[in-house]
Amino acid sequence: MKPIWIVDDDQSIRFVLEKALLRENLPTRSFINPREVLQALEAAGEEGGPQVLVSDIRMPGGSGLDLLTKVKEKLPGLPVIIMTAFSDLDSAVSAFQGGAFEYLPKPFDLPKAVELIRRAVEESQREEVAEERMVAAPEMLGQAPAMQDVFRAIGRLAQSNVTVLITGESGSGKELVARALHKHSPRASGPFVAINTAAIPKDLLESELFGHERGAFTGAQTMRRGRFEQADGGTLFLDEIGDMPFDLQTRLLRVLSDGHFYRVGGHSAVKANVRVIAATHQDLEERVKQGAFREDLFHRLNVIRLRLPALRERREDVPMLARYFLQRSAQQLGVEPKRIAEAAMDKLGQFQFPGNVRQLENICHWLTVMAPAQVIELKDLPPEVLASSASAPTTSAPSAALPAAAESTDSASAPAAAASAALGTAALAAGGAWEAGLEEEALALLHAGRTDVWDVLTRRFETSLIQAALSTTRGRRIEAAHKLGIGRNTITRKIQELGIDE
Question: Labelling 241: which of 12, 32, 40, 224 has CA 20 to 30 A away?
Answer without folding.
Answer: 224
